[in-house]
Amino acid sequence: MTSVRKICCIGAGYVGGPTCSVIALKCPEIQVTVIDKSKERIAQWNSQKLPIYEPGLDEVVQKCRGKNLFFSTDTKTAIKEADLIFISVNTPTKTFGNGKGRAADLKYVESAARMIAEVATGDKIVVEKSTVPIRAAESIMNILRANHKPGVSYQILSNPEFLAEGTAIEDLVNADRVLIGGQDSPEGQAAIEELCKIYEHWIPRENILTTNIWSSELSKLAANAFLAQRISSIKFPLSTQICELLDEGAVLHIYDPKVEETQIIQDLTHPTVTNNPENVKSRISIYKNAYSATKNTHAIVLCTEWDEFIELDYTQIYADMMKPAYIFDGRKILNHDRLQRIGFVVQTIGKKLIRSAISRAWGSQTQA
């Protein structure tokens, strides 16, 4: 098996973009191309304002883009030239059929596998990076084998991600472990070794764990289950929760200093999130700053860890809100005691807040 010189990542989302950017940074001799069918998303990756925000990501992309890191919609060329291909596409919850509302929908993973089989003319290492059910790698292999061309062989690996929002680059650069699963065959072990060599550019070998595919997939699902147990109240993606609020009649004001208005609307009206996009559009307004967004509202929900949100003048914000004024700190970054002294009814995750004397005197609701 030849050494990996070109990598292709199918899916320019939250996992694929940062992961491949760090690989490009740490492996300057390897050409890394991230592909996506969305022209708008690829245009954002090639712009000065990336489609996602993670501390440190801008600097990594700026350093590598145009050198050994590329973002493209030319899927066929990238797949054909790649030695190793990451599949890093969305796996939304099924909205119909068996497992509706519970099981992962593998249509994008399977579509990526079919695209590889259609385009590939040489041997490929195919790495599942998406969050997938156990035996998904077997499904990918079945598709590749059923559609492969003569003389083309594939090795399937599982390399789950363990990234957290807000620390993704730190999690990648200083990973405490990397997990790689492959087949227990000479060819499978050789493929594992090639992926190990990539990570060994910056991760100590003792932190790179190798196992079989089934165990690798199971480990990721176990980690997800543990996370869900820790924060069981956060059960669905944020966009889904927002649409549920809108279905209950809420009017939503949105402010995000990093995400473009078009991207916000696209995320909230995606078919996997709502079946009534026009209702969503009619009940949301997007603002240019936090003060105008919070004016005359009943509650604030803080969902991201931008430093700007810590530094806001909450006394002014409280004065302009309807009373009682609620604030839900979903990232646990604010000074809750100070907010309570101002007059807010404060809620957060995993912490029961004691009402201040002022709040009790006014008969404010018990904090959760």
TrEMBL record:
- Enzyme Commission identifier(s): 1.1.1.22
Reaction(s) the record says it catalyses: UDP-alpha-D-glucose + 2 NAD(+) + H2O = UDP-alpha-D-glucuronate + 2 NADH + 3 H(+)
The answer to keyword Nucleus applying to this record is no
Record: residues binding substrate: F162, L163, A164, E165, K220
Keywords in UniProt for this one? NAD, Oxidoreductase
Q: Which domain of life is it from?
A: Eukaryota
Residues that coordinate or bind NAD(+): D36, R41, T91, T131, E165
Entry protein name: UDP-glucose 6-dehydrogenase
The residues covered by the UDP-glucose/GDP-mannose dehydrogenase C-terminal domain are 244-336
Q: Which terms in the GO cellular component ontology are assigned?
A: nucleus
Biological process (GO) annotations held by this record are:
glycosaminoglycan biosynthetic process; polysaccharide biosynthetic process
MF terms per GO, please?
A: NAD binding; UDP-glucose 6-dehydrogenase activity
Return the PANTHER family for the record.
UDP-GLUCOSE 6-DEHYDROGENASE (PTHR11374:SF3), UDP-GLUCOSE DEHYDROGENASE/UDP-MANNAC DEHYDROGENASE (PTHR11374)
Reported function = Involved in the biosynthesis of glycosaminoglycans; hyaluronan, chondroitin sulfate, and heparan sulfate.
The UniProt entry's sequence similarity note says: Belongs to the UDP-glucose/GDP-mannose dehydrogenase family.
Top-tier EC class:
oxidoreductase
Xref: InterPro entries: NAD(P)-bd_dom_sf, UDP-Glc/GDP-Man, UDP-Glc/GDP-Man_DH_C, UDP-Glc/GDP-Man_DH_C_sf, UDP-Glc/GDP-Man_DH_N, UDPglc_DH_bac, UDPglc_DH_euk
